[in-house]
Amino acid sequence: MGPCLADGPNLATILGMNVEPTVDPPLLVIGTHNAKKGVELVELLAPHGVAVQTLAAFPEAVEVDETGATFAENARLKATEQAKALRCWVLADDSGLEVDALDGAPGVYSARFAGPACDDQANNRLLLEKLRATPAQRRGAQFVCSVALADPAGTVRAEASGLCRGRVLEALHGENGFGYDPLFLVREYHLTFGQLGREVKRTLSHRARALRAILPSVLSLVR
Predict the structure, then answer these.
(1) 96 a known binding residue?
(2) Phi and psi of 68, rounded to 5°?
(3) Which of 115, 155, 164, 175 could form a disulfide bond with 206, CB atoms 3.0-4.6 angstroms apart?
(4) Is 181 known to sit in a ligand binding site?
(5) So which residues are the catalytic ones?
(6) How many CB atoms lie within 10 A of CB 8?
(7) Long-range contacts: 3-8, Cβ < 8 Å, 24+?
């Protein structure tokens, strides 16, 4: 069973990125329904000449229940289930925020911290409420990302992880990024991901670090 091939312009081209053209490259699908996360991953991979699409291009993509107890388990689930459904190479991630004072919460429940139908605003409000009496020196936290690469048969071929340490602030700062970005102070810059530009985030974020770790496997397998 061969990998599905790129058909038409990939998302990197649509985003206006200058990518070296290739002939019928195997297609790598980003296994997320989160549009903003998908764009971040595409931007990280595009300079390396990988033909990339998100699940938005595939009506047959499945909804994967994130039943894993860890980010790594959820990343594997999303990669393998989507790969089998689409018969493509799939790179999936699971990521979230771990707050020291909350014993690692919200963790794997980061996207649904305030409930199944919540949004970023509700999650941030709940986090601020839970940390209301926590002093600045005890608001340490880290963003964590696990990524998994599955072949078209649904077999995991590579895994990696990355993290970014910082601190949760007492109020939102900045409008860039998504999720908890406006609350997360990046130690190296003394600014939140909500205040920093995308170039900085592509260097320092947990997702960028996980992608750099798995990139050699992606380039050796999906080309």
Answers:
(1) no
(2) -70, 155
(3) 164
(4) yes
(5) 94
(6) 8
(7) 3/27, 3/87, 3/88, 3/89, 3/151, 3/152, 3/222, 4/86, 4/87, 4/88, 4/152, 6/51, 6/53
Q: Which residue has the tokens 């600014």?
A: 191
198 confidence band (pLDDT: 50, 70, 90) = confident
Q: Which residues contact 15 (CB under 8 A, 6 or more apart)?
A: 39, 42, 43, 46
Domains and CATH numbers, the chain: 11-221 (3.90.950.10)
Q: Which two tokens stand for residue 86?
A: 């689409």
Instruction: State yes or no: 48 annotated in a binding site.
Output: no
- Confidence category of residue 9, pLDDT binned at 50, 70, 90: very low
Separation between Cα atoms, residue 149 and residue 157, nearest integer Å: 6
Confidence class for position 25, pLDDT limits 50, 70, 90 = low
Question: Can you give the length of the chain in residues?
Answer: 223
